[in-house]
Hints:
alpha/beta; Phosphorylase Kinase, domain 1; Rossmann fold; Dimethylsulfoxide Reductase, domain 2; 4 domains; eight-stranded mixed β-sheet; six-stranded mixed β-sheet; 24 helices; binds ligand MGD; binds iron/sulfur cluster; binds molybdenum atom
Amino acid sequence: MTERKTVKTTCPRDCYDACGIVVIVRDGKVSKVLGDPDHPRAQGVLCAKCALAYNGVWLDEARRLTQPLRRTGPKGQASYVPVSWEEALSDIASRLQVIVDSAGAHTVLHTHYTGTCSLLAGNFPTRFFNRLGATEVDPDTVCNKAGHDALRMMFGNSFYGFDPRTGEDTECLLVWGANPSVSAPHVHKNWLPEVKKYAKLIVVDPIRHESAEMADLHLQLRPGTDALLAFAIVHVMQRELLIDDAFLACHVEGWDEIKNEVIDLDLDDASSRTGVPRGQIEQAARWYGAGRSLIWVGQGVQRQARGGNVMRSVGLLPTVTGNLGRLGSGLLYMNAPPARGVDTDWLNATQLRPASDLPSTVSHMDLAGILEDATRSQALFTWNNNIAASSPEQGRLREALRREDLLHVALDVFPTDTTVYADYVLPAASFLEFDDLLLSYFDYTISAQVMVAHPMGKSASNQEIFRRLATAMGFKDEPLHEQDDVLLAHLLTQIGSPIPFSELAAKGTISWREAKVNCFENGIFPTPSGKVEIASRQWESAGMPRVPQPWADDPPENALLRVLSPADKWLMNSSYANDTRVAARLGPQTVWVHPQEAARRALNAGEQVLVRNETGTLSVRLALSDAVPEGVALIPKGRWPSLDGSRANVNALNPGRKSDLGESCAVHSIEAEVTRA
Ligand SMILES: Nc1nc2c(c(=O)[nH]1)N[C@H]1C(S)=C(S)[C@@H](COP(=O)(O)OP(=O)(O)OC[C@H]3O[C@@H](n4cnc5c(=O)[nH]c(N)nc54)[C@H](O)[C@@H]3O)O[C@H]1N2
Ligand SMILES: Nc1nc2c(c(=O)[nH]1)N[C@H]1C(S)=C(S)[C@@H](COP(=O)(O)OP(=O)(O)OC[C@H]3O[C@@H](n4cnc5c(=O)[nH]c(N)nc54)[C@H](O)[C@@H]3O)O[C@H]1N2
Ligand code: SF4
Ligand SMILES: [Mo]
């Protein structure tokens, strides 16, 4: 007789939804991975990509990494032999020791990011690198750092946003540069329609995606014109007396320094430069300015050359209308773990870091250059990411990864485009194979990730791999050896969970607090002045203008198109591209342009085209869509170069230009020409 049981767990991908999962286990083996009917977001269904991949490649022993591998051929050719953990770890440890003694620990780099967002598997390895004194490639620089820095300087922190449960208390929801229909599919399907019962929905995005289709008003601006559009909306609110003068007087620094510029703004000029009709700007201002209003600022919007200025300009909307500190109001970027009490210094054991004058982090934008330079990089650990697909300067980076003298250790669940360069590939257990905690970055919830099956083959969780490596290095520090159950109990205490892990595991997900979270309710902002800082010296110290600027990028010249590469519906960053059924849905790598742009170039739908700029060339299939505005080429991120005919993805075109803040990426400012192949 087969033994059948069901186990609840949580999807730990980098996704707003943090879906509850029910796993059917037969005879100790995972037989089916389904959505949890009790989970408020998932409501019994997984997104299409996870439904395929979790029941496909993730369960396929032949496709997973199941034992440590040592390289036997040239880098990039994926020739490996299986070795024991002991052999792999003792060789890695002794080579690391030589590097630390000769070149210094700072020449050991590690990159990590979104592979898993569960708290232990996403953070614990950093304890080891802190102890070593290694250099971290700052993960947020490839995603959302400009936005985090801008919001922190303006409001005091960037990870304490509105509670989505307060959607029922609002009259207007403005979604600015996020695409829930792709990046938060259950929020799109369940939350947006719910909020729409009470409130007007406005979307600001160059692309008319499915969430924009659902909106009462879609402001389809030209990419990179957000700051001017934000100023124009504030101008109308000022003109129509929708400004909260009392809030500005008590809680804001610097309004006086931009007020006149706001009053003098030429609305017709702003309309023509942003591409948004004047009447739509006025309508958005009236709806947002009248109500209690929420604003959800996506992560795609700030990936541009002046992304920091964009974020602080968009931040003016809740500031001038006093839409902060009360239910039905607020701004959400992401509700990160510190907002639920997680002590990230403890989690990452930053106290173990040896004192040093050298920077502890570098930007992803500089990674390829640093890896070319042996004086700056002797060893590289890649874990929880796939840099050969997701990082800028793809061609240059892949060339640098071929360096024979670079000790490269890659941890992953699957062989990827990045692991093929590694000297050692270490098999990571999947999220179904160990206990962990997950804090959604949208909802204020606490979720258990539960061990459903034993780690496949000889794979081990990230945290277990780094405990073993610490032992191999002879590191005795207690934080490097803490066990998962102890860490989880400690975390639950930190966040004030009413129940222990065992009970949480039975429930799956619980609310962090019974009552709706009302951020900044005491009217005090954790900035130096205690107020919202539109202007302050910290902006100048960061190399920014003292006040936000109503800037707008000019449209590309010389028939170039602005390349946007946001999230793909069928992929999670580059994850799932190796699932056969996902690959079938994806089809060939594609660029979408407006039919007018194709006509101008005498190009036809379905033909192969070259997208080219000074950084690289990409060969893709052409598709036409009037959801994409003129002047834009849409190429979603996440393809595996090795699985594509052109052996590259959109990051082949990415020069790694930095935004104005946080050394963060400006990938949505890329320009390229599109021609017949
Ligand atoms: N052109 C362009 N490029 C972009 C973006 C863009 O908008 N445009 N977006 C950027 C953004 S926002 C981000 S966040 C980055 C994301 O880029 P990455 O963080 O590189 O994300 P993935 O490509 O999904 O790689 C995650 C890897 O972790 C592995 N993994 C999963 N679980 C585990 C685990 O438990 N342990 C280990 N060791 N590995 C695991 C997966 O198999 C996968 O190979 O990409 C950036 N790149
Ligand atoms: N299916 C799926 N879901 C994902 C991911 C994935 O790869 N696939 N990735 C995850 C990760 S790492 C992240 S960071 C989040 C990101 O999810 P989001 O926060 O939704 O960000 P993006 O999808 O990168 O981009 C959102 C929107 O920004 C728009 N945009 C681009 N340029 C501009 C501009 O100049 N102005 C304005 N206003 N908008 C602009 C794009 O058109 C896009 O519709 O999604 C997560 N969820
Ligand atoms: S990736 Fe997002 S939508 Fe898909 S199952 Fe995971 S949490 Fe849900
Ligand atoms: Mo991201």
